[in-house]
Task: inverse folding
């Protein structure tokens, strides 16, 4: 069977990563969470004082430091789940905090950040056999991907899922705060000048508001079998 590129885009917290990760595992493809890369750059900014007190980014400083930000992935040997590394340190848990979620979209709107990360993502997909999820995978990173999916669900349902996820991890967050964050990220992601979030013309739309994880998984597997 020929190897293909699978691009899964969509709104924040709509379960893209779960379905992408599960499919990759089942079909023996590499899974790349492109959002983790934007989150890792954001964590770097937070740790290195690159946010001003008003929340704006010290763009020039970040531009100069971009080359020293190294992001990589490794599989957790026990769980087989991917872990994100920033300059050699495992930051998988830290990049999922509300603090990073509420700072990431402005960082991801910077053209030089996108250029650097998109280049790395394209490099990762050179050999195909990859499932990548994000916001611009089908439109900008791999416009020729053989299978493109665009996932959506209502903001309330997405916020509820995220709330349950954070609560299960023992993190403190209110439903209202999460809903606000989800809506705010959608707004910034859709309205930015560079590669705004939008469905590629040839992407298949999936509204998973009322689907279980198992139903989604099955649906995606069928799309893969048709495309491969
Ligand atoms: O996918 P996740 O929600 O973890 O992504 C975090 C943020 O990174 C998004 O809200 C978006 O601003 C940005 N992002 C992006 N392009 C991608 C993936 C994520 O702009 N391909």
Result:
């Amino acid at each position: 069977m020929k190897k293909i590129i699978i691009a899964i885009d969509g709104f924040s917290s709509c379960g893209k990563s779960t379905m992408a990760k599960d499919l990759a595992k089942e079909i023996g493809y590499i899974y790349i969470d492109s959002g983790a890369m934007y989150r890792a750059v954001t964590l770097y900014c937070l740790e290195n004082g690159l946010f001003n007190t008003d929340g704006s980014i010290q763009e020039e400083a970040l531009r100069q430091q971009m080359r020293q930000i190294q992001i990589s992935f490794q599989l957790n040997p026990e769980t087989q789940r991917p872990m994100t590394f920033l300059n050699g340190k495992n930051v998988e848990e830290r990049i999922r905090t509300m603090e990073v979620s509420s700072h990431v979209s402005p960082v991801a709107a910077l053209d030089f950040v996108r250029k650097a990360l998109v280049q790395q993502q394209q490099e990762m997909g050179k050999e195909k056999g990859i499932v990548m999820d994000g916001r611009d995978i089908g439109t900008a990173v791999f416009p020729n991907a053989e299978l493109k999916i665009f996932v959506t669900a209502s903001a309330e349902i997405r916020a509820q899922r995220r709330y349950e996820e954070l609560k299960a991890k023992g993190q403190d967050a209110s439903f209202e705060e999460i809903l606000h964050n989800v809506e705010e990220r959608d707004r910034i992601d859709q309205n930015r000048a560079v590669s705004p979030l939008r469905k590629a013309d040839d992407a298949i739309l999936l509204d998973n508001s009322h689907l279980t994880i198992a139903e989604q998984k099955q649906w995606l597997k069928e799309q893969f079998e048709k495309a491969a």
